[in-house]
Amino acid sequence: MRRNRPLIWVLAAVVVVALVAGGGLIWRQQQQRAADDAARAAAAQVAAALAKNDVSGVAFAGTDGAAAQKAYATAVGNLATRPTSAKVTSTTRDGDSARAVIAVTRTLGGDVEWSYELPLTLTHDADAWRVPASQQLVHPDLRDGEKLRLRRTTPPRADILGGDGKALVSLGDVVDVGIQPSRIKGSVPQTVTKVAGIVGVDAAPLIKRVQAADPKAFVDVITLRRSDYNAVRDQLRPIPGAVFRERQQSLAPTREFARALLGTVGPVTGDIVKESKGRYVAGDVAGLSGLQRQYDEQLAGTPGVTVEAVSVDDSAEPRTLFSKDAVPGTPLKLTLRRDVQEAADTALQGLSQPSALVAVDVRTGAVLAVANSPATGLNRAMVGKYPPGSTFKVVTTLALLEKGLKPSDTVPCPPTATVSGRTFKNYESEKFGPVPFHVDFAKSCNTAFVGLSKRLGDDDLAAAAKSLGIGAKWDLGTSAFSGSVPVNTSDVDKAAASFGQGRVEVSPLALAVGTASVARGSYVPPSLVLADSKPSAEPSALPAAAVQTLQSLMREVVTNGTGEALKSVPGGPVHAKTGTAEFGTEVPPKTRAWMTGWQGDIAFTAFVEEGKSGGTVAGPVAARFLRELNG
Question: What average pLDDT does range 435-451 have in this prediction?
């Protein structure tokens, strides 16, 4: 046993040496892993700083964070405010030096992103991993003395086309009128008030904007068509502080042309910039309202972007580091017809009351004109909600004819009629006595319809209206009110609804759609914004005999009734129905004026928000429309 002790001691010594060596290896591996982790953490800190475009908190060798940030901000140029992401994709350490790769993505506007890899070098000193002062932190190809510059190129805005495929809205010359505060001589309020008075804008808010603006800013006042600018040019040019910018912009044939529907194009607002998620920046032009706003992305296309490396002192030619071409917009196709729209716009000129006129193609349901006065603001022609008054007797008569009523049936027209204690009266207390129904319809006797309403079920008026498209579901490609005709809940409710009062509401377009359905003998959903993939709607037939009778009754309104304002207009025979709708709480109540009808293949509705009667106020508007159209 003693003989083997040296061997045991040797083996023990070997084991001890192995354990010591193994422990040292593990320690070294742990130290290496810790060093690797520290290098990776330093690289990740740089990536996080780049994502914020702020490297002031990074540890540097040979410079400090403040100086490095100043150099970085200069080099990154106008991309500093753009959303940026940065992520370390690899890190390799070799002793006291390490190399990493950072994947950088900068959002340039809209959906355009610029991605590249940025090599990063790190060095370790006694206490930390640091970034050398010579490290390029913006882009690997950016040279000393250069900075990034983002340029955007805007493609021409696409046209809005009419039903014939010709442009209704296309590029034309405009002049932006503005004020530059630093150029004003004398009083800011006086200068601004003078400019505002010449171009017709409110001076008070403009004064506040000018006073709050940078002295060298271009403060927008108004955008004028070249012809409108030329008319006031000599007044504006001599004013110190007035500045001008010429460009092209999408323009309709006239300022009024379907303006509430089409909308306008102009310099973007702060809200539009914010909502665009980088698509627009201050100074860009975009759709501000109407279809121009709703279909802005389609019409405007996608701006092109170029990132250049430029000398900070402009001493060298720019070098392109990234580029994406602009994508032109796509035209928007509408059913509007220029001659019909211009006739509608002209018909509303000179009216002191808010008004509207719409026209629909009897054959197809295509909307041919959407006119409003004033031309700006609410598109009351399509989204207004108003009681239709006696124009709704077209719907009530359709329901009554289906119940067996004949035009020759005697239906009394007393000055008043009472239902469940509620008294109804005629316009200006008219009375025609016991007369044939066709006279009641032509003369628009309310009490006759009140008496006939008891023949109808609670849902008959709603069903008849919907069969004509009033209250039906439409798909016009933009907002529109098709009408609301609730199921009646009482005899009084039904009596009021029978002549378009109570809870019944329509828009001028809804009434024109219903009129077109009567003229056609079937309902076809209206169309306005055309999509190539949209299937053509199948017509829903109306009861032929009842519709033919209704057509003859509407002709009598013009020849021997309340629609005589249309009797002598040029063109073919006109069929129509007038309407006077009471509203408000005044005694006597105020009234809205309506005239709906058709001539040939064009159905129309004229509406004036406040007027004595449909025949005397809306009738002449409709007559002016037809004269313009047929002139």
Answer: 97
The three-point CA angle 276-280-284 to 5° equals 140
Q: Which two tokens stand for residue 501?
A: 């009062």
Token readout for 111 is 């959906």
Residues in CB range of 531: below 8 A, 6 or more apart: 333, 477
Residue % of the chain over a pLDDT of 70 = 95
22, burial (CB in 10 Å: exposed 0-12, middle 13-18, buried 19+): exposed
Which class for 274: exposed (0-12), middle (13-18), buried (19 or more C-beta within 10 A)? exposed
pLDDT band at 33 (very low <50, low <70, confident <90, very high): confident
pLDDT tens-digit series, residues 91-130: 999 999 999 999 999 998 777 899 999 999 999 987 889 9
Residue 397: both structure tokens together? 């008569």
C-alpha distances in Å from residue 407, one per residue of 140, 376, 398, 553: 88, 43, 12, 8
pTM exceeds 0.90: no
Report all structural domains of the chain as residue ranges with CATH numbers, in order of start.
2-98+125-138 (no CATH), 338-569+594-630 (3.40.710.10)
Q: pLDDT of 478-489, one tens digit each?
A: 999 999 999 999
Residue 506: which of 597, 345, 359, 380 has the closest Cα? 380
In angstroms, the CA 354 to CA 235 distance is 32
User: By the 8 A CB rule, do 59 and 130 touch?
Assistant: yes
